[in-house]
Amino acid sequence: MNAQQKAERLVESLECPPGAGIADIRERVSQAHQKDVVLHPTSDSELRDITGLWVEMEHASHVFYRADDPEIYQAHSIFHEFGHIIADHTTCGVLEFIDNSAISSASLGGQIQRARARGFRYNDDEDLAEEIAYALSRVVIAGTKSNVRAVFE
Ligand SMILES: [Zn+2]
Prior knowledge:
This protein has helices at about 5-10, 20-35, 70-85, 95-100, 110-120, 125-150; strands at about 35-40, 50-55, 60-65. By secondary structure, it is α+β, with helices and mostly antiparallel strands. Helix 1 crosses helix 6, helix 2 runs parallel beside helix 3 and helix 3 packs across helix 6 (about 125-150). This is IrrE N-terminal-like domain-containing protein. It comes from Leucobacter manosquensis.
């Protein structure tokens, strides 16, 4: 089973209705995770080097995303972190990449940002989280499509 097929199965298990919004999907992810998942819009300076962050605590999980990003990209970043949660990944690989890379020199700061953008797909966990984000976007878009049809048919 490839990453896209795994992602489709995990998203299907949430049983989201077509056109579900982020709030509904968040509740379903919380149920699957058996912990409340709390969303935190965050200033760009706090999430300078990453677009989203999932932090699991004892009684809740927290997903941080950049309030300054375009809304559609915020949704993608949130869905990516939801992907890590429903796939039961232990950590976000992008963070490992940032922490483990030999990029501690401040003079390489510009290069860190480019590496981050590609870092989304640098291992199997990131591939699966991205595929889940796409699959969740298809759930959201499915509702939009039927609403558009309802207007014109
Ligand atoms: Zn990730």
